[in-house]
Amino acid sequence: xxxxxxxxxxxxxxxxxxxxxxxxxxxxxxxxxxxxxxxxxxxxxxxxxxxxxxxxxxxxxxxxxxxxxxxxxxxxxxxxxxxxxxxxxxxxxxxxxxxxxxxxxxxxxxxxxxxxxxxxxxxxxxxxxxxxxxxxxxxxxxxxxxxxxxxxxxxxxxxxxxxxxxxxxxxxxxxxxxxxxxxxxxxxxxxxxxxxxxxxxxxxxxxxxxxxxxxxxxxxxxxxxxxxxxxxxxxxxxxxxxxxxxxxxxxxxxxxxxxxxxxxxxxxxxxxxxxxxxxxxxxxxxxxxxxxxxxxxxxxxxxxxxxxxxxxxxxxxxxxxxxxxxxxxxxxxxxxxxxxxxxxxxxxxxxxxxxxxxxxxxxxxxxxxxxxxxxxxxxxxxxxxxxxxxxxxx
Length: 394
Hints:
It is a single chain. Helix content is 30%, strand content 22%. The chain is α+β, with helices and mostly antiparallel strands. Among the domains are: 17-125 and 383-392, no CATH class; 146-228. The strands form 3 sheets. Strands 5-4-3-10-6-7-8-9 form an 8-stranded antiparallel β-sheet.
């Protein structure tokens, strides 16, 4: 593909125009399309082609700030080394909320989903490794939410993977009066359909209405999990007590080591039960020492110096058990040889112990990381991009 000629498989708009060696077999291009189609819906081409345009028009206070001519020259020159001519909208957006002297190192979201992540990770294998019902096999020594009941491929199992019939499953669910959470075990991105269940007098209520296992099956399908509620650390609950406010820790494998590349604290707002930014939550950058940055952002890249619900300030807050949480993410990543990047959601319990909530391996959100912390790969950007675009071009 020549520079300046759009790929007919890629819609116009913010997508980079990619130069491909004419000798590269067409099978590679077909493989890229297959990679992309395997990503979650929000990262597919039809959405990405509109997303940046929408962000630029609906952000408060108008459009993103223009780049200086020097910044534009530096950014375009840097990416031209990899055979890429950019639309600079993503760089303008990131620089509007997090100005950085290394602006050329920002990773456009469209390139990340269509080239970078599929090169670093085996996207086709991601669903099996992301399955919340598989964590007890994959990470048996990590603290995890206690499972009450699992549904796997249409069959029920207890927390020890012993198959149970529907009567036994109902007994496990209603045995004690408590609060539980039900969530999809597969394809549960963005906090989709994570709901609180209340068990009272041997009945289960969802949003104040009694529900049965059959009704949960109709809603959640063949694969879901029901878990104990997580009791989080009081210092994190102080931001927003109605949600479990988790650390999103992005780890990167290089030839020598697995390490933390970027991290944020995610928080719910306005009484929401989940902290996901895609459905209204906030994220705040975490430094390598575990200290919160001075502002948080929402999905529209609006900035907040204090939590809008609790009023608690972000600046200089020390995240409890940060060292243990970051070490846990790096150690668990070493068990995933097919994936060179991973996004870990880790809670900190009331006993100041990090707890694995979930891992994301495909369609990992990078806007919350770059909007808070700057370029995703930092000093390792050159190394990562050389690998990606050398492999992608054959």
